[in-house]
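Dear Dr. H.,

I hope your travels went smoothly. While you were away I took the liberty of generating a structure for the chain from your last submission, since the lab meeting agenda had it listed for discussion. I wanted you to have the full record in hand beforehand rather than looking at slides cold. The sequence, exactly as received, is reproduced here:
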Amino acid sequence: MTEPNAIIGADAEAAIAAAAARCSNVGRWGADDVIGTLNLIDDVCRRRAAALVHRGETYSLSLRFDAHGPQNGWRGRTNPVRTMLTSGLDHEHGVQGFPHGLGGADDVVFMPLQAATQWDGLGHIFDHGVAWNGRRASRVVTGEGDLVTGIETVASLMVGRGVLVDVGGSFGIDGELADGYAISVADIERTLTAQGDVQVGRGDFLLVRTGQLARARRRLAEGAGWGQYAGGAAPGLSFATIDWLHARDVAAVATDTWGVEVRPNEFDGAFQPFHQVVIPHLGLFLGEMWDMDDLARACAADGVYEFLLCAAPLPFTGAVGSPVNPIAIR
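The corresponding predicted structure, in token form, is as follows:
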């Protein structure tokens, strides 16, 4: 297992550029492609994924969307605010104007689209002015939103085989990896072996559980609040896993952390270098703040770590990310 905060190399700029060139999917699915690695999921993949359902059990992998969520205001990311447009009080006071005793209630939500459990879309991250598939960032995402790779383009595609890799459960202390722990390829492969030698391949959704969310919620229950769960130190994928993910043609990666990759990042002075490579150059979708704890317990109980995953984003036109309520079906 790697050491926490391992420094891969002093030259972050060169390492990012080299990984982007080495693992690039730009042009792989044509110059007009807008769905990136979701091209790897075909009808055969989905039929195989559907065949994984044996028990009929369902597990929501989403946090609750409410004002008590983990956001702390960084870059305008606040927790959702839900208010009522009309309520039972309006009904009882007869101000709704419906005939024959009919009443109702409606509510409205204000929230950043990446406030809780969510997908990063392909317009979310750029590298040196370039967005996914070699396009100029300014021509993809404008003040009107993502005009090319908006999250609505993949609204029906986030369905396939999910594989849980419970690195925290396999090698962490009490099921949790320490903040700042960089998950290596060796860690992933050792976990897969410990879980019954399950394989990860073309078109799979890779779900990596670190245990950080479980730790954050335990502290929350103790009255300590969310702390720095959103944006602070966290276990996560090492930059060195990019080649492995590319070689296996993984369709998407999700974790139970705020930022997927290890934090602090492995290069001095860098910010989210894993994102900088995998989104604009691989076209890889990333899921963040997924709640995998109940699913992990179920998988450990029967030794089955693969399942049908349905994780459709909300098709907000032009959005660079989306809330999601992923459902694992076993």
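Two observations you may find useful: The longest helix spans residues 12-22. Residues 1-6 have pLDDT under 50 and may be disordered.

With kind regards,
E. W.
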